[in-house]
């Protein structure tokens, strides 16, 4: 923010930024952190691919976009893919596992809500300033819970490095690109980045964690991604540039 000389203390819609911080960061990050304790990386990344499905559904309802028959087939395939992945994956299905699956599906729903909300509310808003305040508000939201569950021991160097990497690269830099894409191409198309999450999730899980990639995992991933493809293959771009003149009041 300082290097780019952006005015972070302007007349900003503070409550709207706070809501965006909850939808796009605080809530989904917490839910995914809980999920990754109990699910494999492969399963978590594949379920993360349901984000575009939620986004398409919300676009139909909130943005009043036109629908076509292949979208409804895509919605159905997305549900079937989740059932295949969760119901037939070779892992113990306990009550905790079910809660973990529900948590990541809720997290992807929050992501989709955040993307649609950002497209409707923050057209023309400088991405750097938006990311700065979103991350700060997310910190404020989660800080009381972090104090309540302080670690018993000081974290190791590996943990500190991992947290910094997640915060700087996978969150800060990623959100800069994320909001820029929402501004340029719209929320729905931006959220299709979830297409590639299962590929890298399964790859890194296999290479670094020794997770096995079975036929059920591949079938579930293929079914969900096929559903996402059918939903988006004829979709129009979300009209995010309609109010581009709003940007003047944010500078």
Mind explaining what this structure looks like?
The chain is mostly helical and 251 residues long. It is 71% helix and 0% strand. The chain contains 10 helices and no strands. The model is unreliable at 235-251 (pLDDT under 50).
Outline, from the CA principal axes? globular
Order of helices and strands: HHHHHHHHHH
Count of individual helical segments:
10
Helix % is over 70%
Which short descriptors sum up this protein?
globular; disordered C terminus; mainly alpha; 251 residues
Can I get a quick summary?
The chain is an all-alpha fold.
Helices and strands, with pairings:
Elements: H1 14-38, H2 41-48, H3 51-62, H4 69-88, H5 95-121, H6 127-148, H7 157-185, H8 187-191, H9 197-209, H10 215-232
């Amino acid at each position: 923010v300082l290097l780019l000389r952006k005015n972070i203390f302007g007349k900003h819609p503070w409550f709207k930024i706070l809501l965006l911080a909850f939808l796009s960061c605080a809530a989904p990050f917490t839910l995914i952190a809980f999920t990754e304790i109990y699910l494999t990386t492969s399963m978590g990344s594949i379920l993360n691919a349901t984000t575009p499905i939620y986004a398409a559904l919300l676009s139909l309802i909130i943005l009043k976009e036109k629908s076509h028959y292949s979208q409804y087939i895509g919605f159905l395939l997305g549900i079937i893919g989740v059932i295949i992945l969760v119901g037939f994956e070779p892992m113990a299905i306990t009550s905790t596992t079910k809660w973990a699956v529900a948590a990541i599906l809720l997290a992807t729903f929050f992501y989709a809500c955040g993307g649609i909300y950002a497209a409707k509310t923050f057209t023309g808003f400088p991405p750097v300033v938006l990311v700065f305040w979103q991350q700060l508000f997310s910190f404020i939201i989660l800080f009381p819970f972090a104090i309540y569950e302080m670690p018993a021991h000081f974290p190791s160097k590996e943990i500190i490095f991992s947290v910094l990497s997640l915060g700087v690269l996978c969150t800060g830099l990623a959100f800069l690109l994320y909001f820029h894409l929402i501004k340029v191409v719209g929320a729905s198309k931006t959220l299709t980045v979830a297409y590639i999450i299962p590929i890298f999730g399964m790859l890194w899980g296999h290479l670094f964690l020794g997770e096995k990639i079975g036929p059920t995992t591949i079938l579930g991933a293929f079914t969900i991604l096929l559903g996402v493809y059918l939903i988006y293959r004829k979709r129009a771009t979300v009209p995010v540039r309609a109010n581009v003149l709003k940007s003047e009041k944010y500078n």
